Amino acid sequence: MAEMIWNEGEHIEALDLAGTRISGTVEQVAPEIGAAWIREDGLGERRLVITDDAVASD
Fold first, then answer.
1. Which helix (H) or strand (E) holds 7?
2. Cα separation of 34 and 23, whole Å?
3. Could you say which of 19, 25, 33, 41 has the lowest number of CB atoms within 10 Å?
4. What's the confidence (pLDDT) of residue 7?
5. What was the pLDDT predicted at 3?
6. CB 38 within 8 A of CB 30
7. How far apart are CA 4 and CA 50, in angstroms?
8. CB 52 within 8 Å of CB 1
9. Could you report the average pLDDT of every consecutive run of 10 residues in the chain (58 residues)?
C-alpha cells in the first residue's frame, strides 16, 4: 500500500485509473486502508477514492 498522499482540508485534483477527473476537498482520510473521502467541487457529492488507484495532479 502506498503512503497517504493527501491531508484533510486539502483541495486536490486527481485522475482515477479510468481517466475520470476528481476535483474537490479531502474530508477524511483512512491511511490504514489507503483511502480518502473527497467532497467534489460542483455537485458537492462525497466520493470514496482509493489512493493507490489515483494519480495526483497540481
1. none
2. 18
3. 19
4. 92
5. 65
6. no
7. 10
8. yes
9. 78 83 94 91 92 65
Predicted pLDDT at 56? 61
Burial of residue 49, with CB atoms counted within 10 A of its CB: 0-12 exposed, 13-18 middle, 19 or more buried: buried
CATH number reported for the structural domain that contains residue 33 in this entry: 2.30.30
Q: In this structure, are strands 46-50 and 54-57 parallel, antiparallel, or unpaired?
A: unpaired
Cell of 6: 493527501
Q: Residue 4: inside a domain, yes or no? A: no
**DSSP string for 1-58:** -PPP---TT-EEEEEETT--EEEEEEEEEETTTTEEEEEETTT--EEEEEGGGEEEE-
Strand-pairing partners, residue 13, are 23, 57
Position 43 in a domain: yes
